[in-house]
Amino acid sequence: MKLEFLTLFTESFRTTSFTKIKILHPWVVCIPKRILPIIILTSLFMCTVSAQISLSDGSRLQSEFNLSGQQNKTVLYFDNKDHEVVKRAGRLFAEDIQRVTGKLPATVSSEARLAENSVIIGTIGSSGLIDKLIREGKIEVGGLKGKWESYLVQLVANPAPGVKKALIIAGSDRRGTAYGVFSLSEAIGVSPWYWWADAPVERRSQLNLKVETTVSNEPSVKYRGIYVNDEDWGLLRWAKRTFDVKQGNIGPKTYAKVFELLLRLKANYLCPAMHEASTAFNKIPENKLLADSFAIVMGSVHAEPLLFNNASEWDKKTMGEWDYLTNKEGINKVLKERVKSNAKYENVYTLALRGIHDKAMSVNSSIKDRVKVLGDALLDQRRILTDVIGKPANQIPQAFTPYKEVLDIYSNGLELPDDVTIVWPDDNYGYLKRLSNAAERKRSGRSGVYYHASYLGKPHDYLWISSTPPALMYEELRKAYDTSADRLWLLNVGDIKSCEFPFSLFMDMAYNINKFDYAMISKYHAAWLSNLFGKQHYDQLLDVTTSYYQLAFARKPEAMGWGYEWNTNKNDRERTTDTDFSFSNYKEAESRLKEYDRIGNAVTSLMGKLKDNQKPSFYQLLYYPVKGAELMNKMHLTAQKNRWYARQQRAATNLLKDEVKVYYDSLQVITKGYNSLLNGKWNHMMSMVQGVTASYFELPRLDSVVLSGPAALNVLAEGEDVLKGVRSFHALPSFNTYNRPSYYIDIYNTGKDPLKWSLKPSDSWIVVNTKSGSTTTEERIWVSVDWKKVPRGEKVAGSVTITAGNKKEEVLVSVFNPVAPSLADVNGLFIEDNGYISINATGFHKKVENEDIKMRIVPGLGYEGASVQLGDPTAPFQNPMSSTVPSLEYNFYTFQAGSVDVYTYALPTFPVSTDRALGHETSGGETKYGVCIDDGPVSQPSTSAMEYSQVWSENVLRNSAVKKSVLHINRPGKHTLKILCGDPGVVISKVVLDFGGMKRSYLGPPATKAVSLSN
Prior knowledge:
- By secondary structure, the protein is an alpha/beta fold.
- α1 runs parallel beside α19 and α17 runs antiparallel to α18.
């Protein structure tokens, strides 16, 4: 690696035009100024309805329709009296056909202009021709009437004079019609992301569709949408500097693209940008007109009552204080005017009273007083709605989000009208704080969720690249849906870009939650990508995405600086430090680096296999996130290693310093590459500098050493994480016959000249990979044991002597190779190794279930790649003290007796609801599960912690609630660890038993299952 490479590359970026994307280096891609037309494959996981409309070979079967061809001129018909969104969808569908075939079909609104082949698009009750076909019995829409956002797709012969065959799309309402139209767009290979992610479109000379008569189901969730979080980077800077320079802000031109994307994804709801940096949505009159033309239901986030943006629309000089106690009339006057100006459009009205710009309301009083103030404000807002709109309150869609401190107010007795939808928020890191209890599930307003795929706030932002595991989203959102959250789903997508996949996944689940399950959710991203870039790449995409999410689950790329934000008044910015990933123990940090290197190379290799017109989209959707995460991890972990090496005065220290700078520069280059795609279409969208107090993206602190004098021999044995004051000799961890590992010795130079060294084991059963060498920096020697030669015994000892000139270093070798138990005796058991036992949760030997609780393996969650869910989250609470409670059992073998620290790793989930029947002297405020050994005492850890507490902060950053239980083992030998169900739905990923030998690490030691007899 050389820094000059980056300089050369950056210069070529400015001065060279490329006709092809050329892979120059594993980290960087050169972007062309002109890209060929784009290609797409049909979606593998389209909803069932769409799958019944598919491309065919044009064999002219009765069920086929020729949409476009050399001999055919198909017209698209819609009634001019139909809704504006229907006409928009029709015109966009015509453009989609042009994207595929190069030919733009005619769109007509006169029945006289219908052709032999016609696509007839219309809404029941709003399209004269559709209503006529219904009266004549040519289409049957009984299954559509009264349904929400549903549609019929049907082929009809001779539906009208001069029409031999027509493809009918009839909607139950205006959005149902549009969804039906866009289901055809997806069928012909136009992704909803054709513009926002430059998803490629495959060109075809003919388009023939095989159509089965289909009536779509109603969506799983009534209102499904996003909140555009418009802080001053990403979307806002792109809009004002690149896409809509004339507006100089997020305005109608940008919103038109957002509305179209929502409609194509079968979404229907938008909470617009609300920060002071951008112009408030309702300050531009065209915005709401545009939203209505796309049939998008407008709303506002939790802090914005009745569509009013108090962050940028409230004028203190003319309106007074935003204080309900002192300026109630002023606030209500403004809110009433907003409802008047927007009432004729379709809205969901947020009931709220928080402070300016997402802050707590300024009521410095008791919780009882806060309950009263908020309750009065909500009743006032209800009265405004009924007075202005002229309908009963229960006929006006309203939502209330108990976000942050508002949840405490709600939980302390706030009376909420039954018809208002409660929108339950997550803790901003993907874990829903609570869901509807039995009484709340009966509410006519039902409930919903406000979920984050991007967030700025304590303990650390994650705004750069999306990395929330699909399995986590499904686990949380499925239990929400099952507890009545079927009315409104809102996703915070930040700047939209970089959140493309979670955006799609969220809307797919909201539209049809029942097409998902735990078996397929972790594969969904790979399937989604393979339909864009080729199904032949599915296996490689699955490998990369699986690893990407597992690595980010342990620590998001944005949190690799290991600093907290907003946790001190002394420093206004994050202070980066060493990570908790260990370079000494369990090969933890280096395994992480190695895996990132592997998947980084994999996406580079895959990029080289793609067609040129697929590469811009691939760069955005996978290459940049994977390479960005790889480089961010390499930058911080290598900087940590540099500082560690400097303390040892290793000759390699300065090389690591240079390496870190290359990683830093490469992050800038790939980010510039992103913004240079497609002649700068996305310029200013992607930024390394996000947030207001973060500094993880800056070059870390680096140390140097000054080398002088002759070569100097030094060694470090694996496991020596504390360098001074522990012992005066070197020793490797014990070699255990039941695990049979290999360990390393680092031979390193602290001098300027080359170091010539030789190595000699004390015994023939000590195996090394090399016995001599020369290095200016360092060399790693691998040590293992020949188990056929090593003596039997519990205290077998040897050593490795390293010599360089007149200096010798000795590394002690310990072997644990007892006569009993034999490998056969412990076959399949988890076994003690170096004073600990590590258990992966999916490796249970037995499960005990009942009618309510069925144990479920969940791929895609946890440090080990899969976890176990203790029953369905909606099942009744189980008593972990019961002798018959459902459980997981793990058999293990230990050579110790006495007290043992048992660490359980679980998802940091909250209690599902507040009305669990927990029994005598049991608190309902936190989750519970049980841990015991054999039939000993039961410890009851929790997965939950109070939001913004230190425990919660650590939990969400590591996606794991690690809890210690001190248990007792009465004798060495075979025992059983039991994980007992308490709160159903608790997800366990691993367990570690520490007898005093567990070393410091972040993930805990890897599983210590005894080697198989076959080995």
